[in-house]
Amino acid sequence: MWKTTSTGVSARIRGGCCRKIKNYYGMRLSTEAQAGPQPKASPPPPPKEDLPPPKKRGIFGKLLGLTFIGVGGTVGYAWYDPSFKKQIEDNVPYSKDAFDFLFPYLPESFAAVKSRVPSLPSVSQYNPFGSEVQNTKEEGRWKRRETSPDSEPESIPLALPETKPKVAETKKEKEVPIQPVKEETVEERRQRERLEAARKKKEREEEEAAENAALEVNLENLVLSCTNKSKQAIEVQNRVLESTKSHVQLLKKAMDDTTNILDKDAQWEAVATAFEARQDAVLAAHKDVTAAREVLEKLKHTIEEGKKNKVTSKNKMILPAKETLNNMSSELNKMQSQVEKTEGEAKVMLKYKDLIDKGRQQFKKELESIMPAVKLGDRKGMKLTEDELNSMIAHAHRRIEQLQKQLAEQIALEQQRVQRALEDQQKEDEKIEKQHLAQEAERLQNEFAIEKEKWEAAAQIQFEEDLRHHLARQAAAHSEHLQEVLRVREKELEIQFERVLHTKLLEERSSFHTEMVGWIARLKGIEAAVDGRAESEKMAQQAQTLWLACVALNGAIRLGNPEGAKMEEQLRPLSNEVEAISKASGNHPFVMNVIEKIPEQVLTKGVWTEDNLRARFPKVQKVCRRVSMVDETGGSLLRYFLSYLQSVFIFDSIYAKCKDTEVDVDDLNTFSILASAKFWLERGEFENAVRLMNQLQGAPRRVAADWIEEAKLYLEARQAAMALMAFASARGLGTIF
Hints:
Layout: H1 6-35, H2 56-80, H3 82-91, H4 95-102, H5 110-116, H6 131-147, H7 164-175, H8 186-256, H9 264-308, H10 318-370, H11 386-559, H12 575-585, H13 589-597, H14 600-604, H15 610-626, H16 637-649, H17 670-682, H18 686-693, H19 699-736
Helix pairs in contact: 1-4, 2-3, 8-9, 8-10, 9-10, 10-11, 11-12, 11-19, 13-19, 15-17, 15-19, 17-18, 18-19
């Protein structure tokens, strides 16, 4: 199997890709043609009511049209913009092969199309500014080309009014006088740098002052808001405490007071009113406490942001704001703890009330089950009969006995319940204590952080004062050291100046001698150049002689002996031409190596010419086709006859029509090999033809062996002649350069 290059692979991929695209769109078009009637066909039958309208054809046509528009637009823009083309090739598979297949049918580039568009008349012909505007435009265009050589081509101006602003700008630029550039001295540059540094420092200080002022204003507003919100939340929580305590006291009084039964309704109404007041206070407290917590969180976030910023981290308002935040948070936490404690007591009282109400309801149900006719709580039927009173007394006695038994059991279990209650209370107390400890620890930690910041600020001030004194002492010592160094440096520079002056004098004295030596060297160089020129002329003459000898060898290989009548008589030995080349090259190693590789038969006998080999090939092809079925060992007359019949009925089939086409040797037969060899011979490709003929086997191989051998000799001689021609040309170019 022959191995092809990367171009053959790309061509094969391109062909496969194009075939897939054509098959895909061919399938789509055939489907569309089958979906509905053709326009030029006979008129369709009248539509039936039960059939739906053919909407799919319109949708398919739109999709097909959008597909062609998208593909065409992509190809067009890729032709216009090479960068877009490169991006598509990098991201879309097989797009490079598709572009390589389509772009040969398009112009080379957008610039080539632009070069064929006739240019419009110059703007200078229609404006009073003459050629100056045109020169200015040309200079600007050349400058743009120099600065951006890879930029896109300029657009062609299509209207004259677009150039008028450019003309006006050119006139203004022309009217501006060119100021002479004044060289800046070292002192001026230093002064400018000092002023620039002072200006930047002042701007930086102003920016820092503005940031600090903004932070101070923000902190003042937040501190004031936190104070107001916290006081309001504490006041509302105090009202919650008072209302909760009042509600608990009234509830306890209403449940425990049994002396004045007629005033119970008023007592319970007071309890309900106190409960409503308590609920209102709780809602208001929740709202105000939430608002206060939000403001405190904003203040905390602002303080943290100020400390993170390098400019505002040392602001004097951060520490007081942090103290205020700590105090307000502590007060709110304390008040919240008191409210939670009071709420817990209220919940216990409510549970006690629920238990009492359940006991009364149970006793009422028991009496109603004993005396269904008597309605408890009805004041109109208060008189009871003797049997009802006896039943009630008996039930009361039984209830008392039952309660006495329950009391005995409760007394026995009271110790356990008290123990469990104490454990629950202890757990609740521990929970509250942990909460208090966490709040107190947070408060102490915040206070410690504030004190630490105060200590850091005081230490920073003390450190800065000590640093200023130390720097002042260091500056004085450094000034004295600089003065001493400058005195030493002055003496060194004086000594160095004297040494340099003496050196310059010596250099000036020797300059004349150096110039004389230079002129003498130039004269010697001229003599050497003349000698080299003569040598190069000699080498050029030798190169011409060698090239002519190589041309003679090439002509002998190509034409042979034109005077011969037969093909065998046209053979011409090449020994004379080869000997002439060897003498002309001066026995150069490369030439001698190439000559040694030429076969001896070529030198003594010669080679068949290309025309003779091409004329001889049809006869060889004909005989090889007739014996295609015969192997190396020969065969019977029947095999020869069948082989002859096969050659009559089999037509030529060519597998390889391109140099880069990859062909599997196992798929080749005698007829395809002969047809392909003939195809390449007609196109002057002897190498491919000989390579194909070399694949023959059996009797066709024996028949074509002589032709193959002569063709190989011809190719070897031609290859040697081409190598010698290339060497002669290179040597001639070497003499020129």
